[in-house]
Amino acid sequence: MTVSNPTAEGIPLASARGRWLVAATALGSGIAFLDSTVVNIALPAIRRDLGGGLTAQQWVVDGYLLTLSALLLLGGALGDRYGRRRIFVLGLVGFAVVSALCGVAQSASELVIARIAQGVFGALLVPGSLALLDASIVPEDRGRAVGAWAGLSGVSTALGPFVGGWFVDAVSWRLVFFINIPLAAAAIVIAVRRLPENAGAIARTLDWLGALLVTLGLSGVIYALIEMPSAGATSANVAAAITGAACLIAFFALEARHPMPMLPLGIFRSAQFSGANLTTFAVYAALGGAFFLLALQLQQSMGYSALEAGAATLPVTIIMLVLSPRMGALARRPRWPMTIGPIAAGIGVGLLARVIPGRGYVDTVLPATVVFGIGLAVTVTPLTSTVLASVREEQIGVASGVNNAVARFAGLLAVAVLPAAAGIEYGAFGLGPGFSRAMLISGLLCIVGGGISYVTIDRGMPVRHIAQPAVDHGCADPALREAEISK
Fold this sequence. Notes:
mainly alpha; 18 helices; about 75% helix
């Protein structure tokens, strides 16, 4: 079945429609990304109001990331099948409703359940936003459009701690969730009035069983990883781990045989696509784990208020805002920015090990966040463009879903594993020496991501247009490659 595309020739980025398109997609995905980080700074206040220790705080973060990472693949496939704008708007509506439920939660368990539901709708937003952008903007403008999207979406992630801190101190942690409602409403209005519809060219048989298996698999494994450090290897925890592992094995076996898999394993035959996703995992695991623990360290070990703790990471926001939109040109030769960027970000995370009681902001937090922000800004846009450039046109939604699922799963796993791996035992005086160990582990992981990029990026032949001479020029940016091909 072929679906007509009214924007087959593309929309210029400089046009009014192009600007509205970037605004709507960045706002929609930004809301989902914002909720990955904004809650971190509110965790101590949530704990005071709703109860629970470190385990409850982990679940408030990981409940959202669990369904978000598990269902992003299905979200991309739904957009390809039923129309990217339609699924994008559905995700916005659901996200707003569930955000309200998060805001009125009266117990930690109610909040965790609402966060799990929030992740379901977030999984419809993220892949649809980037797929809409890449499929609608004219080829010669796509590099800059992706750069603008990555910058604005990245800023929303980095801005989360500051916004959350202000909300917590000025009003209540509940405003962290209520703010999503007007933001989602604005994105819905823009999407309905201004965005074109882009549906996939191939009718999909949706892989519902695969979605169920991967969700159950991740749920079981993450449950065990979070609960075992405090509760031990109880029968329930062991059963969850075994069941989760079995479901994940069954998921990959199913995907290898399914005629229209949610995760087409053949997509990983591209060394460039696989390498970019491994780099994504390393960078976002470091980001997710480090900033989860930094928010707790600043407030519960060093006495920062929520606003002060949020403002502490503001340099990352400023650097992302200034540099990310200018990084599109680096996508022409992504190997070096994707090598140097993660290494710089890893050094910045490692410097956070010096953030301990008795030390000042200017000599510890500030230099670490500046170095990390520069590294992240250099990395994000070339990374995003490389992922999209490595797949065929009809796989854009799936590729976007895979990459974003990898990023969210990395943060999910880091929040579950890093406290125990670093020996953090939360007590009356905060996180203890385990915090510094956790920062060093995260920094090393990020540096490994840079090494992976050096080995893999530009050494594997991109899947899309593999017979075209543009590939021989090492052109990984989809906009530039399409422009060369059109010549």
